[in-house]
Amino acid sequence: MMEFHLDRGSGVSTYLQLVHQVKQALRPGVLRPGDQLPTAREVVESPAINPNTVLKART
C-alpha cells in the first residue's frame, strides 16, 4: 500500500503534496492506472491529515 509523507514546512499545501506523490508514483510504474489508492480513512490515520483535505486531493 502506498504511504504518504508530508513536509509541513515546505510551503506546499497538504492536498498538493498528496497529488504530487501519486503522480510521482505513476511515473516509474509504482502505481499503474486503475490501481486502488488507499481509502481516505487509511490516509488520514497515518499522517494525521484532515479528511476533507484527502477528499480534495482525490478529485
Automatic annotation (TrEMBL):
The HTH gntR-type domain is annotated at 12-59
Q: Which PROSITE patterns match?
A: HTH_GNTR (PS50949)
Is this entry keyworded DNA-binding? yes
Keyword entries, A-Z: DNA-binding, Transcription, Transcription regulation
Signal peptide (residue range): none
TM helices/strands, residue ranges: none
Stored InterPro entries: Tscrpt_reg_HTH_GntR (IPR000524), WH-like_DNA-bd_sf (IPR036388), WH_DNA-bd_sf (IPR036390)
* Pfam hit, one: GntR
Protein known as: HTH gntR-type domain-containing protein
Native organism is: Nonomuraea maheshkhaliensis
